[in-house]
């Protein structure tokens, strides 16, 4: 196991950990990951923890923030989250994306970068709302407050490509992480907050997974123990919701995709009771009611970080009962464990249907 280097939030190296007994990570393509480290007590690290010093652990290419610890006479256990956990500590007030300057709204990637810019890159006396009357910021004494920008926060290169502008809206306060994750889901993108030590910067990076030209199969000796599960018990092809009184539309009966499909036999019309009081909320509810297709497999000769990364799409082929199966799955997460010098890495695979939400589903959502 490689040494773990501990930094403070100002990029100063504080201590190197060489006596780690075990460590477990769960890293996600588009969510906050977790870390748990077990080691003999290190007096230098213990002093930093006791002083509540904000710390970043760097373990090869894995980076995480210390969020807590447990210590007893036998060992020190340190808990953490990946750096994008910091996004859970910023809020976004209600907003709209349509105005005179942007009559067509904003695409999901641009909206994420806008929200990050508002949260980290501007000195602010108000929160952006997109409505022309931004929300002023005051302290307990009702005095105006200026929230200072983060001078060394950087937006990395945007994802190349064209994404459709939408008229997004939020009617309640949310934490920034919730919105970053949700809007990047719309374009099947992942992200991370990177601790750029040489340049002493916090860098937001977003990317799209690639389809890897490798077939995982028994014949190629790249996989075995395939277990496919298809579950349609909770799947529906249409739904009903009770409209909010503020909407002009009557109670709506619609099919997923927004069009009535008269090729579906009547007996197979599967009607869901949708949550929410608006069409946007109902569409969001409907977008979750699809059949689930999952796959488990043992993967050989492929190394995380070398042959594939988070978000990449892998092809699996196997034959059971004379039926050939070909499944394309994406790497939603990886679980990594070191027990002293024994290393294991297990990818969590998910259906491509699980990767995105219909971009129409939240254009007016809460």
Describe the structure.
- The protein is mainly beta and 366 residues long.
- The protein is built from four helices and 25 strands.
- The protein has helices at residues 43-50, 108-120, 176-186, 279-286; strands spanning 4-8, 13-17, 20-28, 34-39, 55-59, 62-71, 76-82, 91-92, 95-96, 126-127, 135-136, 153-155, 169-170, 174-175, 189-196, 201-208, 211-216, 223-231, 238-241, 252-255, 271-273, 292-299, 313-320, 323-339, 342-351.
- The strands form seven sheets. Strands 1, 2, 3, 4, 5, 6, 7, 17, 23, 24 and 25 form an eleven-stranded mixed β-sheet that branches. It has a three-stranded mixed β-sheet with strand order 12-16-15, covered by helices on one side. A three-stranded mixed β-sheet has the order 20-19-21, with helices on one face.
- β1 (4-8) and β2 form a beta hairpin.
- α2 packs antiparallel against α3.
- The longest helix is centred in the N-terminal third of the chain and has 13 residues, at 108-120.
- The chain is flat, with a radius of gyration of 24 Å.
- Mean pLDDT is 85; it is low at 250-259 and 358-365.
């Amino acid at each position: 196991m490689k040494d773990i280097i501990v930094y403070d939030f100002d990029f100063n190296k504080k201590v190197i950990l060489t006596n780690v007994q075990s460590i477990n990570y769960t890293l996600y393509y588009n969510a906050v990951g977790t870390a748990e480290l077990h080691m003999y007590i290190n007096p230098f690290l213990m002093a930093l923890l006791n002083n509540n010093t904000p710390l970043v652990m760097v373990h090869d290419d894995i980076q995480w923030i210390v969020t807590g610890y447990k210590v007893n006479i036998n060992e020190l256990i340190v808990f953490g989250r990946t750096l994008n956990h910091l996004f859970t500590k910023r809020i976004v007030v209600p907003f709209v994306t349509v105005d005179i300057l942007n009559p067509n709204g904003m695409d999901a990637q641009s909206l994420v970068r806008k929200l990050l810019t508002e949260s980290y890159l501007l000195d602010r006396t108000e929160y952006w709302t997109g409505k022309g009357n931004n929300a002023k910021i005051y302290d307990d004494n009702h005095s105006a407050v200026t929230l200072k920008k983060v001078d060394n926060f950087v937006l990395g290169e945007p994802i190349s490509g064209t994404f459709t502008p939408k008229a997004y809206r939020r009617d309640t306060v949310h934490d920034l992480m919730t919105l970053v994750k949700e809007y990047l889901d719309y374009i099947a993108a992942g992200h991370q907050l990177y601790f750029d030590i040489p340049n002493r910067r916090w860098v937001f990076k977003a990317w799209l997974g690639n389809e890897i030209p490798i077939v995982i199969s028994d014949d190629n000796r790249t996989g075995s123990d395939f277990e496919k599960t298809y579950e349609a018990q909770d799947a529906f092809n249409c739904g009903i919701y009770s409209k909010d009184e503020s909407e002009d539309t009557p109670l709506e009966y619609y099919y997923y995709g927004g069009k009535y499909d008269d090729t579906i036999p009547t007996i197979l019309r599967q009607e869901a009771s949708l949550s929410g009081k608006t069409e946007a909320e109902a569409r969001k509810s409907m977008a979750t009611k699809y059949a689930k297709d999952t796959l488990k497999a043992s993967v050989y000769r492929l190394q995380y970080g070398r042959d594939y990364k988070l978000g990449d799409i892998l092809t699996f082929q196997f034959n059971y009962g004379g039926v050939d199966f070909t499944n394309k799955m994406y790497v939603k997460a990886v679980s990594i464990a070191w027990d002293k010098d024994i290393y294991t890495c297990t990818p969590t695979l998910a259906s491509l249907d699980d990767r995105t939400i219909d971009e129409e589903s939240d254009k007016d959502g809460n």
